Amino acid sequence: MGKLFVSGLSLTLFLIFFAGFVMGKENPEAKAARIHGAVLTIDTHSDTPLNLLREDFELGKKQDQAVTGTKVDLPRMKEGGLDAQFFAVFVGQGPRTPAGDVAGQKKALDILAAIRSSVAANSGQAEIALTPDDAYRLKGLGKRAIFIGLENGYALANDITMVRKFYDMGIRYITLCHTSNNDICDSSTDKKKGSEYHGLSSFGKEVVAEMNRTGMMIDVSHISDESFMDVIRLSKVPVIASHSCARALCDNPRNLTDQDLRALALNGGVIQMCFLSDYVKIPDPNPKRDSAMAVVRSKYNDFEGLTEEQFKQGRIEYRETSRKYPNKLATVQDMVNHIDHIVKVIGIDYVGIGTDFDGGGDLAGCRDVSQMENVTLELVKRGYSEEDIRKIWGGNFMRVFREVQKSATL
Ligand SMILES: [Zn+2]
Questions:
Q1: Which of 297, 326, 355 is the C-terminal boundary of a domain?
Q2: Domain range for 161
């Protein structure tokens, strides 16, 4: 007994010494690099497919963000240790007419085809992924997993059967609306129409039920507070906010209030931090930029109802104007403040990352996907454990993804 006690004590002392030695040796950078490589990292929202329409862009070739303004390509994903990403099939809100519906749906199908062919052309670097297991399998192979989400339920073209059809085409979430109201629900940012349905329309309620049945994740980013509460009340499974932050830290209608966060936690869902500077931190006043950007926005009709050519030109002008009158970017630290806040309000199990790269996402310290490890470094510096970081980088989101797929009945 005495002997056993002594050896047990010396083993304990040895372990403490050993742990101290390891901890002493491992600086935050080394610890962040180790964790970042070990956990599955997923970004649930990028608008990279918009670049696939550019002639000077190739998904499989490394580009310099300072020169091209692009934030994501496969070599930079690898460099930044990002294992998986949701590419958004983004359809700007057009006229809510039968002809507008047809055009919106065609646009979605065209972008979907462009994603498929670009990924297929780079099959040595990436594959289309359809399930959480696909992402883990591809990480094991050293390949990037490209998931697909649809940003704007407008592309359903008021046809409920399209939910299942889009699912069969590989889409795994639908953002119910974009910056304007549509036939599904009110948007958080439609200044012209305001609240049209006080939440979901009757078609929107059907869409929520059909998404549940199909195993399609419901994305509540962009929708109004009333729409959010309707979705939470009706959805039988957890939902996602693919790219939104906390309104308590940055008062923007695109962000979720603390009340929303509590409802989201009860629902078992997840909120994915958006790297768009204006949603992370209220910008300092910059009237020159505001008026120059307002001119571009009004010239291009708030980027709604444009032809492909007009949209491309508008984006170029938007980028140039933004570069000419830069705003001081929010930082990675500012973004992690949102994670801290959400963890404080609802705990560690409901938060993740959804950058909105190539759709406005851009932070000092994380200008493009190659710099993703800086997020992990900041989390390490703030004392988040490896298990916490695993949840933030993908564990939480994948839990929701699995649950939604498992509950599908169609
Ligand atoms: Zn968006």
A1: 326
A2: 29-281+330-406
Q: pLDDT band at residue 26, thresholds of 50, 70 and 90?
A: confident
Considering the domain architecture, whether residues 116 and 65 belong to the same structural domain is answered as yes
- How far apart are the CA of 18 and the centre of ligand 1, in A? 48
Dihedral-angle region of residue 408 (phi above 0 means left; psi in -120 to 50 means alpha; beta otherwise): beta
The CA 176 to ligand 1 mean position distance, Å, reads 11
The length of the chain is: 410
- Judged against a pLDDT cut of 80, whether residue 11 lies above it is answered with no
Q: Provide the CATH number for the domain around residue 180.
A: 3.20.20.140
The two structure tokens encoding residue 98:
């039968």
Q: How far, in Å, is the centroid of ligand 1 from the Cα of 34?
A: 31
> Is there a single domain that holds both residue 289 and residue 402?
no
Computed from CA positions of residues 366, 369, 374, 380, in that sequence, does the dihedral angle turn out positive or negative? Answer: positive
**Distance in angstroms (rounded) separating the CA atoms of residues 334 and 253:** 18
Mean pLDDT of 48-76: 92
Ligand 1: centre distance to CA 48 (Å): 12
User: How far does Cα 212 stand from its chain's mean position?
Assistant: 20
Radius of gyration of the chain (CA): 22
Provide the sign of the torsion angle of the four alpha carbons 263, 264, 266, 267, taken in this order: positive
Residue 2 confidence class, pLDDT cut points 50, 70, 90: very low
**95's tokens:** 């006229």
Element (H, E) at 279: helix 277-280
**Is residue 62 within 8 Å of residue 75, measured between CB atoms?**
yes
Spatial CA neighbour of 253 closest among 274, 239, 270, 232? 274
Q: Domain check: are 138 and 33 in the same one? A: yes
Centre of ligand 1 to C-alpha 212, Å, is 22
